[in-house]
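Q: A reviewer asked whether we had any structural model of the full assembly, not just the individual parts. We don't, so I'm hoping you can provide one. Inputs are below.
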Amino acid sequence: DAKTTQPTSMDCAEGRAANLPCNHSTISGNEYVYWYRQIHSQGPQYIIHGLKNNETNEMASLIITEDRKSSTLILPHATLRDTAVYYCIVRAYSNDYKLSFGAGTTVTVRA
Amino acid sequence: DVKVTQSSRYLVKRTGEKVFLECVQDMDHENMFWYRQDPGLGLRLIYFSYDVKMKEKGDIPEGYSVSREKKERFSLILESASTNQTSMYLCASSPNAAANYGYTFGSGTRLTVV
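A: Here is a predicted structure for the entire assembly that you could use as a starting point for your response.
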């Protein structure tokens, strides 16, 4: 699986949009981009995933660049409960069941 | 919503004890996984199962075994607990291995071996 690069940390004001970048410059054509988050002392939570097109669900939007070498997770109206570590992962459909979580981005939403 | 339930949030066991960590999912998922999470090491896969009674070793199976007698339940067994097995243990499930499904994780069991 390709590796990802994310900023170590970022702050966001409550009620504002939070834009979380992720670089995956060696991504392969069959690899999806996944985002998970982990709130302190809880298990990781799936947020969203995409292959080429931008995606939106009730939690977030995922913007993938045309060359697929980077993506941005957008939390449209951040709340204090969005404070967590956010992980960007790339993974292909295969028999490889491993999820490789890097260090992620620690997002702190401030009132 | 899919729920993955781990039987204990916190557990303290003595060195040498046999430890059972239980995980149950309620959405008829084919695949179940056990990970451990340690600071600086991320999530590491211990074992996974893609069907009842089927299991595959992950990256760090030594010192662990698993059991999946029913589709909804996946147990992790520490045959003889050691202090280096002190960790956060996470169970996850997914419908299948296809990349277009996310994994659902449980809340984790923080195990301390003394």
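A: Points you may want to mention in the reply: The CA atoms of residues 43 and 56 of chain A lie 23 Å apart. The mean pLDDT of chain A is 91.
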